[in-house]
Amino acid sequence: MSTEYFRDISKIPYWPSAGAKDVLCFKHYNAGEVLHGRTMEDWLRFSVCYWHSFCGTGADPFGFPTLYRPWNEGGSAMETAKKRLHAAFEFFTKLGVKYYTFHDRDMAPEGSTLEESNCNLDEMTDLALVLQKQTGVKVLWVTCNLFAHPRYMNGASTNPDSHVLAYAGAQVKKGLDVAKKLGAENFVFWGGREGFLSIYNTDVAAELKHMANFFKMAVAYKEKIGLKCQFLIEPKPKEPCKHQYDYDAMSVIGFLKHYGLDQHFKLNIEPNHTTLAGHSYEHDIVMTSVFGMLGSVDSNTGSPDLGWDTDQFPMDIRNTTIVMKTVIEQGGLQPGGLNFDAKVRRESTDLEDLFIAHIAAMDAFARGLRNAVRIIEEGVIDGMLKERYLSFKEGIGQKVDEGKTSLEELEEFIKQNGEPKVTSGKQEKCESVFNHYL
Amino acid sequence: MSTEYFRDISKIPYWPSAGAKDVLCFKHYNAGEVLHGRTMEDWLRFSVCYWHSFCGTGADPFGFPTLYRPWNEGGSAMETAKKRLHAAFEFFTKLGVKYYTFHDRDMAPEGSTLEESNCNLDEMTDLALVLQKQTGVKVLWVTCNLFAHPRYMNGASTNPDSHVLAYAGAQVKKGLDVAKKLGAENFVFWGGREGFLSIYNTDVAAELKHMANFFKMAVAYKEKIGLKCQFLIEPKPKEPCKHQYDYDAMSVIGFLKHYGLDQHFKLNIEPNHTTLAGHSYEHDIVMTSVFGMLGSVDSNTGSPDLGWDTDQFPMDIRNTTIVMKTVIEQGGLQPGGLNFDAKVRRESTDLEDLFIAHIAAMDAFARGLRNAVRIIEEGVIDGMLKERYLSFKEGIGQKVDEGKTSLEELEEFIKQNGEPKVTSGKQEKCESVFNHYL
Amino acid sequence: MSTEYFRDISKIPYWPSAGAKDVLCFKHYNAGEVLHGRTMEDWLRFSVCYWHSFCGTGADPFGFPTLYRPWNEGGSAMETAKKRLHAAFEFFTKLGVKYYTFHDRDMAPEGSTLEESNCNLDEMTDLALVLQKQTGVKVLWVTCNLFAHPRYMNGASTNPDSHVLAYAGAQVKKGLDVAKKLGAENFVFWGGREGFLSIYNTDVAAELKHMANFFKMAVAYKEKIGLKCQFLIEPKPKEPCKHQYDYDAMSVIGFLKHYGLDQHFKLNIEPNHTTLAGHSYEHDIVMTSVFGMLGSVDSNTGSPDLGWDTDQFPMDIRNTTIVMKTVIEQGGLQPGGLNFDAKVRRESTDLEDLFIAHIAAMDAFARGLRNAVRIIEEGVIDGMLKERYLSFKEGIGQKVDEGKTSLEELEEFIKQNGEPKVTSGKQEKCESVFNHYL
Amino acid sequence: MSTEYFRDISKIPYWPSAGAKDVLCFKHYNAGEVLHGRTMEDWLRFSVCYWHSFCGTGADPFGFPTLYRPWNEGGSAMETAKKRLHAAFEFFTKLGVKYYTFHDRDMAPEGSTLEESNCNLDEMTDLALVLQKQTGVKVLWVTCNLFAHPRYMNGASTNPDSHVLAYAGAQVKKGLDVAKKLGAENFVFWGGREGFLSIYNTDVAAELKHMANFFKMAVAYKEKIGLKCQFLIEPKPKEPCKHQYDYDAMSVIGFLKHYGLDQHFKLNIEPNHTTLAGHSYEHDIVMTSVFGMLGSVDSNTGSPDLGWDTDQFPMDIRNTTIVMKTVIEQGGLQPGGLNFDAKVRRESTDLEDLFIAHIAAMDAFARGLRNAVRIIEEGVIDGMLKERYLSFKEGIGQKVDEGKTSLEELEEFIKQNGEPKVTSGKQEKCESVFNHYL
């Protein structure tokens, strides 16, 4: 039996003309090339997501599955799961990506009882461990799917029924065990059903407390089993809920600080969620970085004119440049990375489209990285910023910056110095200089 | 000289037909009527805002002023300011509202120096104090206008130039003195320019630190002068900035907790800002109430299909009902209130439109209050909620609620009890029951 | 064998308290009551939709099915289809609604060939005809599902492959035959995949022409078979497409007029689609009515803070009032009606929730109808409008209205009469008067 | 007296470092360079707008003016107007742009009567004619400001008072005379107040008819005076109105066709308006081009996360590339052009920022043009498209395309040929290939 599902990418004609002058290959990404002191691979830490790329069917709310995947054909659920895992590792290897991410229920089918589900997971992660060792591919993060099963329709840790919360707790316990077994570098919580559909039937105060207590139990168990990975919360404003408690980066930070959980968590930012919350693409990445909470990035994109999560592959060089500039400035994402939480369109039905999409997105980020390195190394934009804030380096400004002055002293300063001068913000100049690097 | 600008409202024909069967009057609001243990006046604590109703001109980004106001005609800036103040108190009194709110620069014109501005403010607040004593009308809150003057174009406490920050500090110092002098019950900070227009020219980390230090100075000065009022921050996501740091309730809560400021501040929620942040009308009111941070409400509305702050008078009974339900459930807004941060449309050019708009909005809130009282006193919705969360009152649910269990115990519970049963969320039933009270 | 799936609604306790003082029943809708010259039933022409209420599973993009429906259990696809149809007619009858709507593929399962699908449809519509005659329930409209099958993923009449377009044509031919057989009063086209996901791979000009030609063929066939029903196009801006050609009412009107199709079509307006297009709830209903193109209404609602189609049951009395006011003013919707293109939430898992949702929505529209009748019969709002536009009833205004003047004459009028006087738009007064009727 | 307001741009240091290695200059735009058969100047037809760049003050709804412009200081209104006009022509010339656009009221101050306003306009356009001849700069388009004066607060051609409509007519008559006098190549109608604030006080049917009759009078007068320019309508969905009748391209096309006006008008598309209507940046440009109605472009941009018109200078190369690809494909914009309806930020207070912004935007469009030419000349994307729609070139597809088939024939085709094959839409590949050209 062959486990070969994918062609050699260097044989896929990329340029559409008959006499193809080009085959599918990276045009910008060069894993081992050193930029600004690290290899590209090390800056970018790409990861393939299991659910979209290996479990996705192309179904949408208005349409049936469109994606034929040979690993999904025939056999029992567990046999299919194994074929899928082999296919995935073949893909990771041929693509040359060193990390993957998955939900517990992506990798192993849910059984009719918790015990059966756990048993399935044990068997599948045994195989995953073998494949990881064979290939050197590692787990960027694991997460538990606490949203797809009907039991979670009204929430997992925020469910009005404590029985459901208990189920979620049991599932997370196993998920943490799996994270340890597979050496996952991070563990993600995405609360897709932790919120409400209607304020009328919801006790928000109770639900928030339960969610906090749930996280505390996860922290306790993590410490008990000596699991070293970073906990991450992934904000999303809405969809499937009308309102999710983890609306955006600042909502999560506020929640974590209120419940004394901020030392135990960082954030996994997905820009498609950020834009759904009404922010610009880079907003939550910048804000979490400023608050020291940027842990990892789900590198995808939406369309600004659409109001739901489209999970498209990121292609905009301007966006990838800003993200990578932030990443470099905070010294990298380790132990996080850039996870492609993105799916090929349901109309992109060729198996090669999986390669095309990943390669195009990796190239887009490689271009972003190169641009960001040039911006940082040339120092023009940074110089403009430094000059702009110069007044906080001495005198009254320095006192403000260090928290050593008072309203009385500020008033006295104005009485001495009068009206400040008008200073142009030079926004168009900054935009133009930024454009120069794209 | 007469300071009478407004007609007696009981003589304004309200119904448009020639043989008017109706004059302008409250149809639902009845100040002294006791509901659920307090007078309507005490639950609602209405306040008229000075800027829109007495300083507004009707100008918009595409049009010149449309509103002719007799108190703005003729005389020096200070003479006009005094006429305006007399007009306002005449309006408060005829309308029967006991509170007003104002920015420092609404009440007294800005001078060419800080000293001159302060001098103007002293003179005007002397007069205000006289009028307050004569009428019994009080200050719900004062705020400093740190956004309209060109010096603040790049921010006040987050300005890249510390000279500007110093000016803002001097202005707030005076504002706090004024708050004390006039017995203001609250003091509001709205950071209309505290954010950014472009991420490219902004040092977010520095600006947030400066903003926090600025608030700390305000707290210190407040304590120094023995000012008793409640400090309030008013979130807004954007406009005039592309992004304001005080994006929404949770952003502000996260910021306050991060900088250790949460004991000193509550929030002033404006629903038109909440909807601009992508939330439902009541969202920030509910969330701040849950976090014990709801201080006051800027009772206005926008249109869900518009992306800017229209500051319309609130007219939707469903919205006013939910707001009042939340207010009653937290035991009232004291020392906050319901401030009409709302403006008549620029096309509503009749002086009587000011009365019509306020009376209609007060009636809308009076209907909301009556509905909310019925909802709470009949207890049907509350009963549905209690039943829904009943499982947290005993057994494993109670342990979760009290933070006394663990993932291991939850797993054990599931091994014993298996799959939870499916329970309908009954959303349509809740909506239908809610409709019953509207 | 019993085909009884639903309880008698008069035995379902509605009020949640133990000693229920109330059972499920209409509180406002009274089918035979005459208002403004017609029965409520005749003004409202309610219709139940087949897909959401009988085929819906509760699956969403993030979750598996939640809704257990006894008629979906056991048996072959055709056996299930028949049980479903019996259940539906039982529901229509117990609810007291006289119309239903369906897609071809809701009623009969798709076969492996067109012939087999058509055969299934013949068998199912034979049964439908029997049940229609037995119950008196009629078809408000039929539509063909040209979006769910994978073949339509890139469009039906706008597919880049003419083979797919041909398939859609064959399917519509059969759909029209079915419409005739069952006496459908209307036939709807909803182009869920008629648009694009990416402008980069789309030839918009070609696709629009093909769509127009497709409609022309449908008109020709309708005339050929003597089908009397009204053709309706249902606009939607996006979802599943990034952009649908039938974006909103005016887009469809522009398209129809450009291709000379406007005599053959009216519009079926769904307010949840209207708000997704950035309009207010009532916008497309008002605009189509003004252009003489309002044919029918999919009476549902979304949430203004959500960017996708939630298809909720309409509960807002303000909205139902405006819709019914427009409907009355144009003399009714005949042969259209109010079709509940709405689904119970996936968390509303009780079978009784189907009744609760429909009854609550029917009551919401009954209240809207009563309000609208009062508004129209009392004439206050209409009087305000008449007075506002009075200047077009004589003199220069009348000439403008009748198209009998010129810029030169207008200039001469201004030279004679100078500046117009300022007239308040009285928006708050109108809103307040409108509130009076809610 | 010197009329020199601006420095020589080649002396403005552009790169911020002290030892400037760079002065302000075009880096991509090269007016005379021939690409795809025309000069860049000829493809791009840049135009400077008068209102933002010469009349703008930097005031916004929350702030006072910030922009000090020397030509606005001192003197009477007419003296200032003349200084402004000299400044503008100095700027056009130094920038090297051959077109400008203006509103009647930008160029000459409104008088206290129509006659006085017209007299001011005569005097100012005499001067403009002299300066046009001296410099060779021409008028891309004129428009009448029918929105800023209070008389137009409730609309101009849709005002409920026919007296106001008459005023607007008189003003347009003069505007058309001015267009002829100055040789304007186009005349624009932007209906900023042609819509409604509230549906409650609006007779939509009457207003639409009056607007149509107004346009008919304008067409008649244009023909009478032998004015050769192209009439253009500029859509905008909202702001200042809650809803504008000219919502987007398709709304305008529907309106024009309904009233038989489509032969006399094309559209002036502003992408910032397009995105406010919920579309992607390029949508209305593509749609009008497909319908043969793309007349001119107001080349600006907004921010996708903001809900109002920010009129920023266009800087995104992806956007400029798509626009120019569409422009080239329709054979150019003549007699239209790319008008910079964009304003420097109110914080960009240096006079040089005007140059920086225009040069950066012109460079952005020059890059877009170069990219578009490469895309078109290399033909890869076009080849992919042609292949995708190939089936419409023969057989049943060709019959569909030519409107020569029927549903019966399509059904027969399917009976013969069965199920179509699945064909990937290759969206990611298209995006990737497009990225290759950026």
TrEMBL record, chains A, B, C, D:
<comment type="similarity">
    <text>Belongs to the xylose isomerase family.</text>
</comment>
<dbReference type="InterPro" id="IPR001998">
    <property type="entry name" value="Xylose_isomerase"/>
</dbReference>
<keyword id="KW-0119">Carbohydrate metabolism</keyword>
<dbReference type="GO" id="GO:0009045">
    <property type="term" value="F:xylose isomerase activity"/>
</dbReference>
<dbReference type="InterPro" id="IPR013452">
    <property type="entry name" value="Xylose_isom_bac"/>
</dbReference>
<protein>
    <recommendedName>
        <fullName>Xylose isomerase</fullName>
        <ecNumber>5.3.1.5</ecNumber>
    </recommendedName>
</protein>
<dbReference type="GO" id="GO:0046872">
    <property type="term" value="F:metal ion binding"/>
</dbReference>
<dbReference type="InterPro" id="IPR036237">
    <property type="entry name" value="Xyl_isomerase-like_sf"/>
</dbReference>
<dbReference type="GO" id="GO:0042732">
    <property type="term" value="P:D-xylose metabolic process"/>
</dbReference>
<keyword id="KW-0479">Metal-binding</keyword>
<keyword id="KW-0413">Isomerase</keyword>
<keyword id="KW-0859">Xylose metabolism</keyword>
